[in-house]
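User: Please predict structures.

Assistant: First:
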Amino acid sequence: MREQFRSDMSEVQDDVVDIFRELLNTTKLAVNALIKGDEVVAQEIIDDDDRFDALTLEVEERVIELIATQFPVARDLRFLQSMAFIAMYQERIGDYTTTIARAARRSADKPVPQPLIDLIRAQASLVYRVMDAAREALENRDLELALKLPELDEPVDSLNKQFYRELGRLTDEDEIEAASKMVMSARALERIADYCVDTGERLAYFLTGERALLEAAEAEVEPQKII
């Protein structure tokens, strides 16, 4: 019976890791659609949002079922709670990816200043790194990597501020309209990275039992890889 429970928990973790992989791929597609003005790909991403909602809801329902039927305690209970929280973060990441796709659809065929395109590329590249690190930390239950996520997120926040400075320099109405969609997308990317940091916080809580914020956990817990 307990062997089946362990297998079920492993499947939950595998599902959450797989969702992260899909979200990373979809985020890349959304950003590319934004840069290229690809309305077709943008609409495909928008239409696919319900599937991500269903995937994350399935994880939450599986967690509830395991808690209700297996009565987990201590580390097992922390694990299941953390998977449910991370699934919720993933659902919101999916929503922000859809926000980028909607911006891509609305700004297609409108002139976008090259500096903003360069900024969105740079910011997206940093966000991909944060997303993949969150996925890897979760897959390997790597506390050290989880504790590095805030550090990886800092450059994302810095780049986001540059969008507003570039927007303030524009005077052409068409450029301002398209640029506003870029700024909206930059904000969405920033929030995606933030939810990855939240994922690291939940992972750190599962591994250590500490409820401190990730920055506090970094100071209190000596980084180490826990298998």
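Second:
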Amino acid sequence: MDYPILPMPPDSWPAVREIYREGIATGNATFETELPDWERWDNSHRKDCRLVALEPIDEAVAELLIPLSKLHVLGWAALSPVSSRRVYAGMAEVSVYVAAAARGRGVGKALLEALVQESEVNGVWTLQAGIFPENAASIALHKSCGFREVGVRRRIGKLGDTWRDVLMLERRSSTVGV
């Protein structure tokens, strides 16, 4: 299915935040345990590579020019800088989250493919992802979009009282930074 993928406007934050909350609740998406407010989230992500996937709408409805805030957000993807050092300006960390009700429908793949394209338009040559080894769906998604395993960071951090490993994956652009 084709999902409309658009730049993430600030007014989609409530839906994005809810999808992030669902990801946190799984215990396998992030070390985060509390939702950030808009300002904290906004400041920790690149301004140019933020996307939302929307529920498809038919052309007749689309012609009504419905505002984005009224459309159903199915997922989001964004990039975070890996370092403030200039040498790493072309590297970014990937976040992809899909609403629980939309998982398994190809939303994540559509978002990640679009994010890869958007990253290259904006000069990013390496994307990295840190994924809990238990999150098999996310690992498969990233591999399907050209990411490869580069290692495992053992017991890198605690989630609650449990030490967690993180599988490190990366994707090197074939067009940027070659």
